[in-house]
Amino acid sequence: MVDNSNTIKTEEADGFLRLVGISKSFPGVKALNNVHLNVRKGEVHGLVGENGAGKSTLMKILSGAYIKDEGEIYWQGEKVEITKPKDSEELGIAIIYQEFNLVPQLSISENIWLGREPLANKALQLIDWTEMHKRTQQLLDDLDLDFDPKRPVAGLGVASQQMVEIAKALSLNAKLLIMDEPTSALSKNEIDQLFSVIQSLKEKDVSIIYISHHLEEVFEICDRGTVLRDGNFVATIDPKQTSKNELIQLMVGRTLDQQYPKVKAERGEEVMRVEHLSRKGVLSDISFSAYAGEILGISGLVGSGRTELVKAIFGADPIDSGKIFIYGKEVKITSPQSAIAAGMGLLPEDRKYEGLVLKLSVKQNVSMASLGKLLKRGMLQLNIEKSKVLDFIDKLRILTPSIEKEVQNLSGGNQQKVVLAKWLASQSRILIFDEPTRGIDVGAKVEVYNLMNELVKNGVAVIMVSSEMPEILGMSDRILVIHQGELASILNCEEATQEKILSAAMGVN
Amino acid sequence: MATESVEIANESKKKITVSSLIGRFGALFGLLFLVIFLSITSDVFLGGSNLSNIARQATVNAFLSVGMLLAIITAGIDLSVGSVLALSMCTLGILVIKMGVNPYLAMLACLAMGTFFGWINGLLLTKLHLPHPFIATLGTMNIARGLALIITDSSPVSGFDRAGAPEVLTLGAGSVGPIPVAFIAVFAVYIMFHILLTRTPFGRHIYAVGGNVSAARLSGINVSRTLMTVYSLSGFMAGLAALMLAGRTNSGFPNAGAGYETDAIAAVIIGGASFSGGSGTIGGTAIGVLLIAVLRNGLVLLNVPTEWQTVAIGLVIIGAVSIDMLRHRAQ
Known about the structure:
By secondary structure, chain A is α/β, with parallel strands linked by helices. Helix content of chain A is 32%, strand content 26%. Chain A has a six-stranded mixed sheet with strand order 6-9-10-3-11-12, with helices on both faces. In chain A, a hairpin with a 2-residue loop joins strand 1 (17-26) and strand 2. The longest helix of chain A is centred in the middle third of the chain and has 16 residues, at 188-203. By secondary structure, chain B is mainly α. Chain B starts with a helix and ends with a helix. Chain B has helices spanning 2-41, 48-73, 81-98, 103-126, 133-151, 167-173, 181-199, 201-211, 213-218, 223-249, 260-270, 282-301, 306-330; strands spanning 157-158, 175-176, 179-180, 251-252. Chain B: The chain crosses the membrane at residues 21-46, 66-97, 104-124, 179-197, 227-246, 282-302, 308-326.
């Protein structure tokens, strides 16, 4: 149980931003119910909760995208109403969304001052370029960023684009910055850089609401945190006095004895053997085997070639040389078709853009890779298809009102299960999970792990790429570590530790 | 958490029912409204000769719209159909009337010409990787039109009957009892394509490619082959429409089909397909085709000048696409 002393009273009135008793309903759903939030000046305030807990709805109310049904908003002690995005902007609230609002072809300066460029001549609407670049340089200097204001945004990495967004927010004199999953696409180094920028923002008395799935980050960067569950306020916590397990318990409302319910299965025959796989500049001379009844983890830093490796095996990326043997027989994999025919299935890292056709139904997505098995005299047997899909919905516990429902209406965990059902329908013997639990909430993660357990128990070979170290350690039987496109190490789960994996991943011996 | 997801699902279900009502039946309501309105305001509208006139007018667009539907479901477009129709029709005219080729062979050549241009469109997309079918088909649209003018010296080739080839007229002008052959052909083609889209892997592939190319490819769908087939079929339908028009007009003329792509696009979009790909049905397209035909006919009956008819068609297209956008926003 959580010690009550960990929860800080919310009635305190010293808040820089104070939300009191906020409620919001949509037809059929109470998205927020009497929620409180109290953010102090110059504080990093974490906002945590599972998907659907109400975090985004609350932030949309703050940004003026939604209008609250009930409750009060106090800004620097004064009651305010936010009914449109302009209201929020005028108060000094800025949001950095997961997807950036930048125009790639325009320069950093142009992006920051878009629509409010400093003018040299008002009548002719001529832009004062010198002034604009000067002001941009000032902003970039403040953030300790070494960019040329004149360079186009196109070609900047994700992390740098995020910095431009932050600079833009500061150019609007933002006093409160909301960051929605800011690290989801960043590497470790980039995260460190982001955190140091956040530190310097704090010193400038900018408050930050930090939304993240990654609890480690909440503990590392946040001064305080507020937990939401099912649209309700649960608690405001002090990360220094709260353990990770306590926080998870607050989020899910139940204890998760085990985040990684690994069940060891019996290792069977060799299902796939990869020999000397190479692709110029990306992968060099990688050899390994995958066995039935085993989860083979693939670890490595971002950009090390993990995703590229599985894409190459799956025939989605070309290779220069190397052989792939399935059940001891060499197979030429030249396209995803040939990989699927050889018994492989890929659950891509980016479910929405590579794994699913969001606007098609659950049924169409599930049977997409196995239509050939439903044919009779050239026609799809729709009845058989329907019963097969219903079967998978039942077996994998996919929550959907009907098999005709568009996949875009399902939650992240259920979408992942639809991708899995697609490969089970095509009777894949080798399943490649690339970041299987990315963007999936804690409860659904465990379900995905249990499904993996069941797969290996049934003799499937599972290959799991993950950048989450605990996930790799918690679920893999063996761990393949990639460093700059080369196989750095293969570790058994008994001998593997975080330190061993990290030093191999960083090329340290 | 479980109950919450279900609630959210139910909520979106409600939304979709309202918006999909507009999407699925909006065109049908529009068509019914037009029919009722014209029955009241015009004495001749419901007359047998006028109705069969509408149907005849609709057949060419009916064929072109099927090809357009396939292209639009893949998130593409085929602007070349009108010009390809003209080139196929002129090819037929020259082979039969000027060169005395066997009419059946010539009709095959007409279909082959259409299919060939569609195939070229597919090749430009999948092998040359032109950025969007808009560009590829805009190019072939001009090429086909130019070739049609060149091979005919810019003047119509007329008189299949006088050239001793009345067979050519059967499809466009013939009838079985009281039923025009053209109707039967349209009906058969629509049923075939409905089955193709709903009951075959190829049909599913088209929707998947249009909905999300990367996911389709990673699901083992041969994207290039699917697109090649789609554009070849669209070309084939243009060839079929050419046979129809040649039969009805007893000639091949190089300016035929100018602007027909607009009517086909309009019919498909009014029929509920989305420019962003992944959706669209044969039934919806049939309604779209009828709506445009009735609209054009009605404007004539109401003595609206031709110039204003064009304006009206434009307004209907914008209206239909606006409804499509509203539907997307509702989701």
